[in-house]
Structure prediction request, 380 residues.
Amino acid sequence: MSDIPVTPPVLAWGVATHPGRVRTENEDAFVAQAMVFAVADGMGGHQAGEVASAIAASTISDRLANGAASVDVAVAAVVEANAAIFQGAHTNPEQRGMGTTLTMVAALTSESGAGRLVVANVGDSRTYLYRGGRLRRVTIDHSYVQELVSTGHITEAEARSHPRRNIVTRALGIEPMVRVDTWVHPLVKGDRYLLCSDGLVDEADDGEIAQLLAANPQPQAAADALVALANDHGGRDNTTVVVVDVLEGETALPDTADLSLAADWDSEEPDRLIDAEVGSPAASVPDAADTGGATTVMPTVTAAGRRRSPLGTLLFVFGLAAIVTVTVVLVLAVRHNANNGPGPTTTTSSTSTTSTSTTSTTSPTESTVSSSTAAPTSGP
Ligand code: MN
Prediction:
C-alpha cells in the first residue's frame, strides 16, 4: 500500500485472555498490534468456534496491520473474514455452523482519516470508551436481549441475567454476506478503549469495570485485573480483554461532554439477512439449548445454570396483557360503532395494534446500524 500514514497514532495497550473457571477450551481470539485491535468470540461445537475466531483474528491482523486507509477498507477486512469462515464452515463438516463475533478498533490512515479511529462490530463482544472517568459503550450488541432493551421490554440490568442473553442476531461466518456496524472516533489524548468478549460483561457490570480501569493506569495491569475480576465472579465463559490507551491526540473537551454516538445511527437500513428472525416474537426464538440448525439466531453458550429474570418475565406478561386489552377494547369499540353506523376499521385497528408492536421489536437493530456499511463487494 502506498499511502501508509506519516504519523501512526501513539497507542499503548495490554491484553489478557483466559478460558475461565468452567470451560477447558478458550474459543476467544484477539488482535493487538500498533494499528489494529480486535476481540473475537467463537461459537460452534467441537472446537469449531476456536477455528472461527482464529480466522477472524488472522484476517484482521493481516489486512489491517498498517491500519485502514478508509472505513470501507476496514469493513472489507471484516467481510473477508466472514467469507473465509463461511467457506470453512461449508467445506468442513466438522466446522459446520461455526461463527464468531468481532469487535475491532483500527487506526485510519488516509490523509482525510488520519488522527481518527474506526470502531467496527458484529455480534455481542463490545468496545467501550473510558474518558474522563466515564465508561461508555460505543458498540451496540447484535443480540436478542439488546433488542429487548432497545424496545423497553427489559432493563440493562435485567439483560445481564436474562436466560437468552447468549443469543446473538449477527455473527461472522453464518451468512455469505455480513453487515458491519462502524463508528469513527477522533483520537483524543487520554482516551482508553476497552474491547472485550461477553465473558467479562456477564460477570462484571459497568461500574465494576470502570473502577478497575481507573485503578490501573497501565493498560496491561488493567487487562489482567479485568480478567481476574471475571474469574473471581465465577468465570463461566472465556474472557478476553484488550485495553488501548491513546497517548497523543486531541485534547478532550474539559467537561467531557457526552459523545454524540447517536448521530451515526440515525438512518435506517433494512437488515436483509435476518429480518424475519430478528423481528419474531420471543416465543419463536430457539431455546439456548437448541443449537442445531439455527443460522441467524445463534446460541453462543449453553444456558445451563442461568435463571430467568422474574422481573423481565413480569414486564413481558404485562406488555402482552396491555396489547391484548387494547386490541379487545378497540374491537369492542368498533363493533359498538358498527351497530350505530358504518364502521370500516374493525380489522384495521386490531391489525395495526399487532403490527405496531412487531415493528417496535424490529426497529432498534435497523436504526442502530445507520453507519453500518452493508457488505458491498465480496461474497459468493
Ligand atoms: Mn463468550
User: Anything to note?
Assistant: The first strand starts at residue 11 and ends at 18. Residues 310-340 form the longest helix (31 residues). The two ends are 26 Å apart (CA to CA).
